[in-house]
Amino acid sequence: MIKLIVLDRDGVINEDLDGPVSSPYDWIPIPGSLEAIARLYQAGWHVAVATNQSGIDRGVIGLDVLHAIHQRMHEMVNQAGGKIDVVAFCPHSESNQCSCRKPSPGMLYTICERLGVDPSTMVLVGDSLRDIQAAMATAATPIIVRTGKGQKTLDSNNGLEHIPAYDDLASYVNALLAPIEEV
C-alpha cells in the first residue's frame, strides 16, 4: 500500500507571511520542515503539497512566480534528502466557489488520482480549519500543527479536540516515525 502524506504549504512547510509569498526569496522554510520531509521520503512515504494560492486570481502573483517559488521549495527539499511527488494548487479566490480550493477536497482527490491512492488512507497535515475540513471530506486522517495559523485555529475552533495537534511538522514526523525507527 502506498503511504501518502499531504502537506499544506504556508504555515506547515514554510513561514506563513501576512500576505502571499510573492517571490522565491520570501519562501522561508520553518526550521526542521525540510528535514522532516526528507525523513518521510526516506521512510517510504509519498509527499504531496496542496496549497490555496488565491494571489494568482487576485493578480498579486503570476503563475511564473508561483512556479519559481515551488522550484525553490523542491530544490531545498532535495538538498535535505527528500522529495515532493506532487504539488497541487488552487489559483482561485473564495468568491469563485470552485471545487479545488480547500476546504473543498478537489486538490486532495487530484493528488490521490495521480498517485493511485485511496483518499481514506492519506494523512493531511495543515494549520487551518479549511485544511482539516478538506481532510475530513475525503475521510483522510487530519493532523494540525501549531505553526502558521495552527495555534490560532486551535484556540478559536471548538470541536477540534479530537484532531491530533503537534508543535510543528518535525514533531509530527518524529511521532509518526518513532515506532518505525526503533525497530
Brief synopsis:
By secondary structure, the chain is α/β, with parallel strands linked by helices. 37% of the residues lie in helices and 16% in strands.
Share of residues in helices = 25-40%
Average pLDDT value?
94
Which segments are poorly predicted (pLDDT under 50) over 5 or more consecutive residues? none
Task: Assign an overall shape.
Answer: globular
Strand order of the largest sheet: 3-2-1-4-5-6
Tally of alpha and pi helices: 6
Largest sheet: 6 strands, parallel
Radius of gyration of CA atoms, rounded to a whole number: 15 Å
Output the helix-strand order.
EHEHEHEHEHEH
Distance between the termini: 20 Å
Strand coverage percent? 15-25%
Structural class by secondary-structure content = alpha/beta
Tell me the number of strands.
6
Q: What would you say this structure looks like, in words?
A:
- By secondary structure, this protein is of the alpha/beta class.
- The protein contains six helices and six strands.
- It has a six-stranded parallel sheet, with helices on both faces.
- Strand 5, helix 5 and strand 6 form a beta-alpha-beta unit.
- The longest helix is centred in the middle third of the chain and has 17 residues, at 63-79.
- It is globular and about 45 Å long.
Question: SSE layout and pairings?
Answer:
Elements: E1 3-7, H1 33-42, E2 45-52, H2 63-79, E3 86-90, H3 106-115, E4 123-126, H4 129-137, E5 141-145, H5 150-156, E6 165-166, H6 169-182
Parallel strand pairs: 1-2, 1-4, 2-3, 4-5, 5-6
Helix pairs in contact: 1-6
